[in-house]
Amino acid sequence: MLYHLLYPMAEQFGGFNVVRYITFRTAAATLTAMFISFMVGPWLIRKLASIGAGQPIREIGPDHQAKAGTPTMGGLLILLSLLVSVLLWADLSNMFVWIVLGLTTGYGVLGFIDDYSKVSQGHSAGVSAKTKLFWQVIGALGVAVAIYLSPDFDQELAVPFFKDFTPNLGIFYIPLATFVIVAASNGVNLTDGLDGLAIGPVMIAAATFLLLAYAAGHANIADYLAIKHVRGAGQLAIFCGALIGGGLGFLWFNASPADLFMGDVGSLALGGALGTIAVLIRQEILLAVVGGVFVVETLSVIIQVISFKLTGKRVFLMAPIHHHYEQLGWAEQKIVVRFWIISIVLALVALSSLKLR
Predict the structure, then answer these.
(1) What distance in Å separates the CA atoms of residue 173 and residue 176, rounded to the nearest whole number?
(2) Domain carrying residue 344
(3) Distance between CA 202 and CA 290 in Å, rounded?
(4) DSSP character for 56?
(5) Angle CA(129)–CA(347)–CA(188) in degrees, nearest 5?
(6) How far apart are CA 199 and CA 205, in angstroms?
(7) What is the pLDDT of residue 357?
(8) CA–CA distance, 34 with 243 (Å, rounded to integer)
(9) Does pTM top 0.70 for this prediction?
(10) Are 115 and 265 in contact (CB under 8 A)?
């Protein structure tokens, strides 16, 4: 909104010329989202606590009963700051902006229903996994079809570290894009189990895709890096900046010991947002590198379930894998920081793939 208000005034007032630049608006969106999070956070914590929106803690596994009653649904703080900031600073005539906003909001609503169900029932079960997966697939499928039908759609798949290997997927792009979005959403959701564990890798991935989105939207930079030029993708850098700002504000309250938990309203939405951005800028496979922590968390659950069903034995002491390390005696903060370090390394590997081909 501010962009559309100030942009026409740039010719009369030279100072407003800065709003023409995506870099400026990305920085502005980051700071705006962070400011909103800092301002709204204390009120939201008090409000959630007053209505008894405390996080139910599973009795199985590591002893986290001391955290019982900590307000959940803190993802509302991230989503509020993110959505307001993007609406203020992004070009709202850009289709990509509305696609990622729509998917993020939809997954946020799904997560809110799940969180509300847990809080109201006083149990950690919430909405059934099948129901959540169904609506996740529906939302992701809608995004995939919209992208596939867009006039500038490129059916070739970008494969990291391979410059000339770009298979043409055709109609099969739709199930791939759907899988990427749903997998990213559930990956972040499974990672959200310790104070600050999920939001750190989410922000690192968002920072990586901020750079990739800007590069993809800039014809000269995309050509130099030999990546797909996606017209209009630069606006997604603003979304990534707002996500980082909202995430930093949330982390202020989520750092151990947490005053606020993210909940499914945050984890499902943020994971879905990352998956959607990866699909929009045509870096679907690279998301698996950048979000390697989410991939490992998801695989640990899959391996655990398959192993137990086939052999009656467990591979890990507990899944997802961050609980395995808890059972080994690692301190919560050590697990969180080490997973953040791994995420940074993976982000650097992903960025290096742009020229190592």
Answers:
(1) 5
(2) 23-352
(3) 10
(4) P
(5) 15
(6) 10
(7) 62
(8) 9
(9) yes
(10) yes
- The amino acid at residue 51 is I
Q: Report mean pLDDT in 10-residue bins for the chain, 357 residues.
A: 66 70 94 97 91 64 60 93 96 94 97 88 76 96 93 80 78 94 96 93 97 94 88 95 97 90 94 96 94 96 94 92 93 95 96 79
The number of beta carbons lying within 10 Å of the beta carbon of residue 146 is: 17
Whether 18 is covered by a domain: the verdict is no
Other CB atoms within a 10 A radius of the CB of residue 34 amount to 23
- Give the C-alpha distances (Å, rounded to integers) separating 206 from 209, 253, 284, 290, 311: 5, 20, 14, 9, 39
Tally of domains in the chain: 1
117-135 burial code (b ≥16 CB/10 A, e <16): ebbeeeeeebbeeeebeeb
Q: Are 63 and 202 in contact (CB under 8 A)?
A: no
**Cα–Cα distance for residue pair 305/285, rounded to 1 Å:** 25
Q: Which two tokens stand for residue 75?
A: 């993802």
Phi-psi region of 159 (alpha: psi -120 to 50; beta: other; left: phi over 0): beta
| Eight-class DSSP state of 32 | H
What letter does residue 7 receive in the DSSP assignment?
Answer: G
Token pair belonging to 330: 């690692």
- Is 11 among the domain residues? no
Determine the pLDDT at residue 166. Answer: 77
Residue 85, burial from CB neighbour count under 10 angstroms (0-12, 13-18, 19+): buried
**Within a domain: residue 357?**
no
Residue 272 tokens read as: 């879905």
Residue 14 belongs to some domain of the structure? no
Distance CA 255, CA 201 (A): 14
Name the E strands within the chain: none
